[in-house]
């Protein structure tokens, strides 16, 4: 226990766990990953969009050149349209290159040394083939458009290749990426801010609870009534249960103390009254009587105190629930030995025990005290009449009965008898009234059941059933 | 022998003092030389000398060598000489299309400077080709030969004039021979791009026996002398210089649209003194450099191009030729062939003027 | 006075009984509530000392039964339970006073005296007429400063008569106040006591008057009035 606590404390000192930090970290990482992914996507999109727009121009240019090709007397004629290259001025910083060649690659006009199309691409009629290749010291985007011409006299295929450097594309792409970056950045910041606000608001109930708790009096163990979100319900419920247990435990203790004090007052009053009487008395006989009364009451108080202390320790111990295998038969013997009065009158006890051991899983001391209580009650109420104690086992349980020939329980008391400090109307003087409540507590704690009922021909039988231990 | 030497001397002495393309001039450093700069340009050396001189006031340690080359040669020579020690550090040319092609083919170095970035978007391409001046392309006429009422203000009016019954311009109208003049070719193709009237105009010019010349100077001389009444599609800056000298010339910026040509600078990739080239370029684009250009070369500053039209006077319908890949279209061999064929056949109707073997047009 | 003590602890009861008898009171004792309730039905007492925690029937039930019958006998509740609620409950049910155990005897006696006095409408324990002083609290009678020794019974008799001063007290009532169930009193016991008392009070300015067939009365002696008539 100590070691565990020490380690916990050490861990806490190293990283005081912060929900806020954890949440923010996770969300932050998520946002970052997302932002990076978005950035890549934006870049891809930008590249594709830029390419697409400028490719359109390029293709238009090539097509307009292709359109201007004519086959005249077996001779290729190209009337380069002004717009073919002027169009490309839309990319203000980019150089342009063009080439018109026949199907054999023979140059008709233009830049003869343009890089050829990659072998896996084919420019079909009207289907432009786009590719990138380096030329003149820069990366250049090329399009190749093929056109078939047939005239009555001749026919042939011509390939028009137009190229443009990539500055404008790159600039457009960069601009798009920058814009996207800005948007992503702003969005991320906003998200983070929102997350921060959200987290803060989400934690408000916690703060509320904390504040309410700290405002309370130390002794205030009322259940928390804070308005909390569903996720915190469990915790608050657990806290309330805990406080309830603490509160009832405190209450028990308080009632116990009050009752203990109360129980002591009468003998104390008697003691004092007799003492005062004796002081005023002259008659030695009377004085002797008083002294005897004092002695009687003092010893009664001492017994009472012992009983109360024992009860208190049983209550405490019952809370701990340190269970081990216990032989109930052995426990019954011990309890009888301790509970039966040694002095006259000694009640007659009829014992009917099962052969062998009756193993249960429990606390030997508690069981002993409980049985002692019952025996004590039986002795007290039956005025030293005969007792019948029986212990049997069945498949699942061990069953102990303690029967007396006393007055039994009045119907009116039957419901209250297990309540702490409840005393029946026929209760003899001097009982603490605690015994049965303790017995019930112990039996319940062991997973068992206790029953008190009147016997047919007078008297009370207490029946305890306890689950057997597998061993 | 002595007589031969004297004749030679006299002959030599009679060579005109004006500089000519193919001329190289070395402008030594004013102070201890710390840097060198080789410039190839299509502008006259005399005109550019002032600019260089002013630059050297700012950077006295720079020695500058300026070579005056015609437009198409400038392009070809660069490609030929680019890996030799004679490779230029800066190319300044009116041949916007050829400069653009140099850039397109990857021969240029980028220059990012505040001055460069201050240029409007149509005046630079990829920060590798920069327009340094803004020159309207105009019609120039002889004020004595053409009464003010007959001066055409638009191309349509020119067309009407060419078709007029009194054939005022017959045999007395001129323009660039685009077969030989690179700038002329550029302007003609731009015209063709701009409007449908270009074709009709060409036909009308042909019908009027248009005189075709390679060089601006020659054309303007002929207008000045009265041999030609009007020349079409010439650079206005040269005419303005002459008008300032008192020649009886008039300039018309066609109101339907006036092409504007940008003199274009490119720093070649193989430049050995690229830092100096950049510095010179930035000087050209700076307010001071622009002012000098304007004053000396009558080249309208490009930086104040945004103020166009605000200075009062008739509204000007200026259309700058844009630096960009569009200019590559008419450089295409086949396209060029087709265009020249069509153009030449339009001019068929008239007789072309004899080509001078002199300096090409700027 | 006639007292009923209802207390289940024998030693405490014994102490109280001995003490009260020594003061001259007649004390009857019951040890459980049921017996006490039935005794109270047919016997009247001057004071009931009632313990709450009793077997068979608890003190509060006995008390409530008494009060329901209209019996106004003064009751002093005695108990080990000492909470405010218990006190209030006892007083509400009809107790006249309440004393928690353990108690000091002196307090117990004083409270009994108060209740007895109140029942008789007396304001104090002391009667003084001229030089005659009757002090119930101090258990002392004196004439002109000199003590008159009285045995307990005679003191009680004087106490009874003083309590009903100027009124006739019946013989039965006197007998009731002087003798408990266990006391043996002869038929002439009362006359005997009255005679002895008269003699001892000879010089006092009070006199005991015999009312034939009814009882006795004590009154302040002034000039005139019937002379002491000792015979009955």
Explain the overall architecture.
The complex is a heterotrimer of chains A (about 475), B (about 350) and C (about 230). With about 475 residues, chain A is α+β, with helices and mostly antiparallel strands. Helix content of chain A is about 50%, strand content about 20%. Chain A contains ten helices and 14 strands. In chain A, a hairpin with a 3-residue loop joins strand 11 and strand 12 (about 395-405). In chain A, helix 2 packs antiparallel against helix 4 and helix 9 (about 365-380) runs antiparallel to helix 10. The longest helix of chain A has about 50 residues, at about 230-280. Residues about 420-435 of chain A have low confidence and may be disordered. Chain B is an alpha/beta fold and about 350 residues long. In chain B, strands 1, 2, 3, 4, 5, 6, 7, 8, 9, 10, 11, 12 and 13 form a 13-stranded mixed β-sheet that branches. With about 230 residues, chain C is α/β, with parallel strands linked by helices. In chain C, a hairpin with a 3-residue loop joins strand 11 and strand 12 (about 215-220). Classes of the chains: A alpha+beta (about 475), B alpha/beta (about 350), C alpha/beta (about 230).
In angstroms, what separates the terminal alpha carbons of chain A?
28 Å
Elements of chain C, N to C (H/E): EHEHEHEHEHEEEEHEHHEE
DSSP E strands of chain C, number: 12
Mean pLDDT of chain C: 85
Q: What strand line-up does the widest sheet of chain A have?
A: 4-3-7-6-5
Radius of gyration of chain A: 50 Å
Count of helical regions of chain C: 8
Q: What kind of sheet is the major sheet of chain C?
A: 5 strands, parallel
Question: SSE order of chain A, as H and E?
Answer: HHEEHEEEEEHHHHEHEEHEEHEE
What is the chains' assembly state? heterotrimer
């Amino acid at each position: 226990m100590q070691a565990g606590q020490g380690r916990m404390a050490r861990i806490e000192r190293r990283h005081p766990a912060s929900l806020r930090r954890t949440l923010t970290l996770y969300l932050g990482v998520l946002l970052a990953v997302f932002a990076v992914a978005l950035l890549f996507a934006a870049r891809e999109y930008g590249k594709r969009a830029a390419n697409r727009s400028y490719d359109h121009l390029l293709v238009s240019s090539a097509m307009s050149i292709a359109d201007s090709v004519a086959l005249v007397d077996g001779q290729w004629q190209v009337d380069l349209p002004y717009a073919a290259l002027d169009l490309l001025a839309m990319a203000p910083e980019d150089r342009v290159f063009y080439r018109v060649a026949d199907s054999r690659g023979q140059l008709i006009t233009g830049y003869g040394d343009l890089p050829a199309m990659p072998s896996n691409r084919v420019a079909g009629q009207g289907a432009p083939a786009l590719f990138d290749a380096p030329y003149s010291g820069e990366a250049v985007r090329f399009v190749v458009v093929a056109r078939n011409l047939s005239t009555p006299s001749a026919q042939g295929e011509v390939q028009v290749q137009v190229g443009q450097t990539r500055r404008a594309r790159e600039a457009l792409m960069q601009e798009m990426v920058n814009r996207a970056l800005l948007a992503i950045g702003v969005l991320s910041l906003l998200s983070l801010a929102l997350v921060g606000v959200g987290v803060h608001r989400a934690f408000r109930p916690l703060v509320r609870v904390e504040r309410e708790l700290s405002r309370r009096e130390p002794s205030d163990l009322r259940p928390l009534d804070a308005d909390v979100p569903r996720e915190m319900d469990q915790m608050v419920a657990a806290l309330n249960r805990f406080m309830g247990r603490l509160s009832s435990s405190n209450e028990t203790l308080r009632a116990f103390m009050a009752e203990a004090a109360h129980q002591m007052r009468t003998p104390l009053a008697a003691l004092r009254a007799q003492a005062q009487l004796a002081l005023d008395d002259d008659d030695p006989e009377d004085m002797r009587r008083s002294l005897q009364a004092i002695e009687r009451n003092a010893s009664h108080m001492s017994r009472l105190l012992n009983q109360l202390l024992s009860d208190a320790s049983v209550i405490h111990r019952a809370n701990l629930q340190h269970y081990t295998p216990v032989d109930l038969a052995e426990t019954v013997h011990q309890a009888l030995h301790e509970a039966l009065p040694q002095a006259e009158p000694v009640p007659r006890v009829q014992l009917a025990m099962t052969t062998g051991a009756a193993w249960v899983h429990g606390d030997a001391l508690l069981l002993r005290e409980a049985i002692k209580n019952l025996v004590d009650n039986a002795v007290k109420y039956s005025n030293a009449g005969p007792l019948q104690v029986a212990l049997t086992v069945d498949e699942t349980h061990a069953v102990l009965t303690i029967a007396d020939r006393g007055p039994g329980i009045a119907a009116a008391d039957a419901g209250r008898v297990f309540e702490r400090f409840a005393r029946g109307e026929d209760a003899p003087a001097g009982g603490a009234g605690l015994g049965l409540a303790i017995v019930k507590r112990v039996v319940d704690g062991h997973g068992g059941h206790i029953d008190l009922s009147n016997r047919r021909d007078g008297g009370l039988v207490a029946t305890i059933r306890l689950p057997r231990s597998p061993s | 022998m002595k007589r031969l030497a004297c004749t030679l001397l006299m002959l030599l002495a009679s060579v005109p003092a004006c500089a000519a393309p193919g001329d190289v001039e070395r402008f030594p450093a004013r102070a201890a030389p710390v840097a060198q700069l080789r410039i190839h340009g299509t502008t006259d050396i005399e005109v550019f000398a002032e600019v260089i001189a002013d630059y050297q006031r700012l950077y006295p340690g720079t020695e500058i060598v300026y070579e005056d080359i015609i437009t198409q040669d400038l392009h070809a020579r660069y490609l030929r000489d680019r890996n030799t020690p004679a490779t230029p550090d800066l190319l300044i040319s009116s041949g916007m299309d050829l400069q653009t092609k140099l850039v397109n083919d990857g021969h240029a170095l980028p220059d990012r400077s505040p001055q460069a970035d201050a240029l409007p978007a149509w005046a630079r391409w990829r920060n590798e080709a920069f327009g340094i001046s803004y020159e309207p392309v105009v019609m120039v006429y002889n004020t004595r030969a053409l009464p003010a009422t007959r001066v055409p203000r638009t191309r349509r009016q020119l067309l009407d004039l060419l078709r007029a019954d009194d054939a005022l311009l017959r045999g007395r109208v001129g323009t660039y021979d685009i077969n030989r003049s690179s700038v002329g070719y550029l302007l003609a193709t731009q015209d063709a791009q701009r409007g449908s009237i270009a074709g009709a105009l060409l036909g009308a010019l042909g019908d009027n026996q248009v005189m075709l010349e390679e060089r601006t100077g020659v054309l303007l001389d002929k207008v000045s002398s009265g041999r030609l009444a009007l020349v079409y599609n010439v650079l206005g800056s040269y005419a303005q210089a002459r008008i300032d000298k008192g020649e009886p010339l008039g300039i018309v910026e066609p109101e339907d649209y006036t092409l504007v040509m940008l003199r274009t600078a490119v720093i070649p990739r193989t430049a050995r003194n690229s830092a100096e080239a950049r510095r010179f370029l930035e000087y050209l684009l700076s307010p001071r450099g622009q002012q000098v250009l304007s004053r000396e070369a009558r080249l309208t500053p490009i930086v104040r191009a945004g103020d166009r039209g605000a200075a009062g006077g008739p509204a000007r319908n200026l259309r700058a030729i844009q630096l960009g890949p569009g200019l590559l279209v008419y450089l295409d061999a086949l396209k060029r062939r087709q265009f020249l064929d069509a153009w030449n056949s339009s001019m068929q109707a008239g007789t072309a003027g004899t080509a001078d073997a002199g300096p090409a047009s700027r | 006075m006639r007292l009923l003590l209802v207390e289940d602890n024998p030693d405490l009861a014994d102490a109280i009984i001995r003490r009260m008898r020594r003061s001259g009171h007649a004390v009857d004792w019951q040890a459980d509530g049921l017996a006490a309730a039935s005794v109270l039905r047919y016997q009247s007492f001057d004071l009931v000392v009632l313990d709450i925690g009793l077997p068979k029937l608890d003190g509060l039930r006995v008390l409530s039964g008494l009060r329901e019958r209209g019996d106004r006998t003064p009751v002093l509740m005695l108990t080990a339970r000492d909470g405010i609620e218990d006190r209030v409950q006892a007083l509400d049910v009809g107790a006249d006073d309440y004393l928690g155990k353990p108690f000091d005897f002196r307090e117990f006696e004083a409270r009994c005296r108060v209740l007895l006095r109140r029942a008789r409408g007396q304001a104090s324990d002391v009667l003084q007429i001229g030089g005659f002083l009757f002090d119930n609290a101090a258990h002392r009678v004196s004439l002109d400063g000199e003590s008159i020794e009285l045995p307990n019974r005679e003191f009680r008799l004087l106490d009874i008569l003083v309590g009903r001063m100027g009124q006739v007290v019946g013989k039965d009532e006197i007998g009731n106040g002087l003798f408990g169930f266990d006391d043996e009193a002869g038929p002439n016991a009362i006359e005997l006591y009255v005679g002895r008392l008269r003699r001892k009070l000879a010089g006092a300015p009070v006199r005991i008057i015999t009312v034939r067939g009814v009882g006795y009365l004590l009154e302040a002696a002034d000039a005139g009035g019937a002379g002491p008539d000792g015979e009955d």
